[in-house]
Amino acid sequence: MTLFQLFILALVQGITEFLPISSSGHLVLVPVLTGWPDQGLLMDVAVHVGTLAAVLMYFWKDTKGLALAGLGSIGIAPARRAVDGTPYLKLFWALVIGTIPMVIVGGLMVATDANDLLRSAEVIATTSIVFGILLYVADKRGPVSKTTDDMAIKPALMIGLAQVLALIPGSSRAGVTMTAARWLGFSRTESARFSMLLSIPAIIASGTATGLKALESASPDQLGDAAIGAVLSCLAALVAIHFLMRWLKTANMTIFVVYRVLLGLGLFALIGMGYI
Question: How many domains does the chain have?
Answer without folding.
Answer: 1
